[in-house]
Amino acid sequence: MSVEQFVLQALNGLAIGSLLFILAAGLSLVFGMMDVANLAHGAFYMLGGYLAYTIVRGSTSACFRASIDFWIALLVVPLVMAVVGFVVAGALLRPLRGKHLEQVLLTIGVAIVLADLVRACWGGEVLSLPAPRGLDASVTVVGQPYPLYRVFLIAFGIALAIALWLVQERTKLGALIRAGVADTEMLAALGVDTERLFAFTFAAGAALAGLAGVVGTPILGLAPGIDDTVLILSLVVVVIGGMGTLSGAIVGAFIVGPANTFGALLVPEFALAFIFMVMAAVLLFRPAGLLRR
Amino acid sequence: MSSLGRILLGVAFVALLLSFARWSPERFWVSVVIQMLISGLFAMSLDLLVGYAGLASLGHAAFFGVGAYAFALVAKHVSPSVAVALPGAALAAAIAALVIGVFSVRASGIFFLMLTLAFAQMLHALAFGWIPVTGGSDGLSSVPRPDVGVSGVNLFLTSNFYVFVAVVFVVGALALRAVVNSRFGLALAGVRENERRMRALGYDTTRLKLVAFVVAGTFAGIAGALQASFDQFVSPGDVFVTTSVTALVMVLVGGAGTLAGPVLGAIVVVSLRTFLADQPLVGARWETLLGALFVLTVLFARHGLIGIVRGGLSWPRSP
Amino acid sequence: MAALAVTDLARRFGGVRALDGVTLSIEPGERRAVIGPNGAGKTTLFNILSGEMRPSGGSVRLFDVDVTAEPTWRLARRGLARVYQRTELFAELTASENVELALLRSGGVWFGRRDVRITARAAELLARVGIADGRARARALSHGERRQLELAVALAAGPRVLLLDEPTAGMSPIETARITELISTLPREMTLVIVEHDMDVVFRLADRVTVLHQGRVLADGEPRAVRADARVREVYLGHEAIA
Fold this sequence. Notes:
The structure holds 3 protein chains of 3 kinds.
Chain A: H1 3-34, H2 41-57, H3 70-93, H4 100-122, E1 138-141, E2 144-147, H5 148-170, H6 172-182, H7 184-189, H8 194-220, H9 226-241, H10 246-266, H11 271-285
Antiparallel strand pairs in A: 1-2
Helix pairs in contact in A: 1-5, 1-6, 1-8, 1-9, 1-10, 2-3, 2-4, 2-8, 2-9, 3-8, 5-6, 9-10, 9-11, 10-11
Chain B: H1 3-23, H2 27-52, H3 61-77, H4 82-104, H5 109-129, H6 131-134, E1 140-141, H7 158-181, H8 183-193, H9 195-200, H10 205-231, E2 233-234, H11 241-254, H12 260-276, H13 286-300, H14 304-311
Antiparallel strand pairs in B: 1-2
Helix pairs in contact in B: 1-7, 2-7, 2-10, 2-11, 2-12, 3-4, 3-5, 3-10, 4-5, 4-10, 7-8, 8-10, 11-12, 11-14, 12-13
Chain C: E1 4-13, E2 16-26, E3 31-35, H1 42-49, E4 57-62, E5 65-66, H2 72-77, E6 80-83, H3 95-107, H4 116-129, H5 143-156, E7 161-165, H6 173-184, E8 191-195, H7 199-205, E9 208-213, E10 216-221, H8 223-228, H9 230-236
Parallel strand pairs in C: 3-8, 3-9, 6-7, 7-8
Antiparallel strand pairs in C: 1-2, 1-4, 4-5, 9-10
């Protein structure tokens, strides 16, 4: 592999890592607060992606029509997904409070229903979304043309990581989240309405999945099954990084992203198997992930 | 009911099951029941983990898939003899379960669920990528039906294959029944109820769980072998997460912790898929119905349909 | 040879010394009570003895075998059983099945059938602790019955050393009297270590008493001598009356 090739592939790995970070941050936040692995996270991503597709493209959904800009989708879709998440948490997860395994199983049911409804609205064919105007150009990296959108995605992921870090460390909300991750009972004893906090946490997780759906679709495209792929990759990220921490999501994402890209280059057929081997190795030596809580 | 009455009822049921293909008018119905029996065996094997040992696995398709691929490969390249291909599939699944189990059973709860999911996906990636052996996304076609070694009995005939599947199902169900009613079965219930106390009693619970994992994986492998020979085809879909999820849905909708429950769940799922798919309006959305049914089960019927039959609905209780 | 010998046992939680150099020697067949005010380290000591917690220092020997780093299930196989303070039962299983699980462990055979002899032996043990109906599910039993079942489970394992963690906690006076009577009629060769708050029970059962205070052994000796010990009286003054 030439140096130029290596640099370009490293950038690709970082772009995928950025996307995985956004996904894993949502998954990890929910797990840290509620002790629930949200197995509908991939379905949330998929729904977010299809919503963005329809908002930008305007015509292809059997369910509704719209035509606005990618940047508006970037704002609207996470809000819509937050509402979806809020409803799921309030109506379905709340009656099962305290029973974490049942809550996880319930999210499987939600994932099945959402995936099927998405197929009802958008059909089964593969869809793609071009990069938004202004980002559809190429830049020159080490003498080669490179899609500007991927550079944007890397920057977006890093900016989001910094923003989330600041929220977590510097705001009252962040203090609440850190306290909730450490000890929910303590929060309840201090008079915090944990049920409401959980619902908002789950909504925030869904919003992050939706956000990932918007920014991820121009590079990954959309097709039935993308929900499972995305869910499994983000689970791998949080398992490697350690569940329930922002730094774990960052570390995990920027291991799995490049591992995926370079794995695909070196052993094309076994890129995924390669990632799972990385995960098995991590679990063998650090059962709680690289950065334990 | 007296034990003699139970035995007579059981024998009558088995006789009815085995002779179904004789008096059923249509091949379609025979095929539907074959699918129910295969899925039922698969779901029962998963229930050994979920319902009896309290281990919610989201990767049971791994062993179903290994059994299916192993059967296809052995039947195509070594021998389609039932005495070779079927034990080969079971053995391959058992070995896979042993290796994956060593890593997985040390975790519990959500972590066990995620680990089993991850390992199954690893095998799915392998089925997808190892093209010379697995055929990649095309899978393996023209998998032969097993050869039972009796002249004149051709399992390519659906009615004959039905009897074969029904026999394997009955033997498998009886074997699983013996397992759950044994001392080992009681020990698994102990692990489910209170693993810490089991350790304090001197049980090596990790080993108990590993053995349960291997037994469950072996029966899943046998179900996978039946599926491969029924479809005469295997594909990475057999190892995919949706196959695991469907089995888990069967177990929970039917009723975990019983052997009849998962079979009932399999009947419901196969029926929805078979009969609703043709209906206008709802037909295309049978998965939505299935998902909704699953959500309702988790919320309101902790013991599944079997539980409703036996004792009514349970409102979710606070811990 | 001591049944249970603890040497210089220490356990720290952060800066707190829950156990600070505890040394004990309990002879086979002895009935030893461990008492002390709340926070003295009694539960920490039991958790280490039953293998559920690792000590920060020191050693535990069971019948002259060093068992300091052994997991709970291995200790159980060496003949150690524990009756937990917070009831630890198999809630959805029947009382009989709870006892059968303890009996079967020593039976060993994994795939054997559950035969009549095991059920009969379980019924015998249940009758001994005062539970008439073995078919009731553990979660349906009253608090007192659960404590009795807990004892039956511990006895079923056939222990050489039995750790009793507040066996009469939360019991009515009648239930307390019954369980005390039951413990006192256990075979004399079984070594008992009892943590208990009820001093009547302690002085009724124990051959020797060890008083823990702030993670250290404050006094150790015959019940009568310990009761008369001035330092013990001082520690207990204002906490619990020592009758």
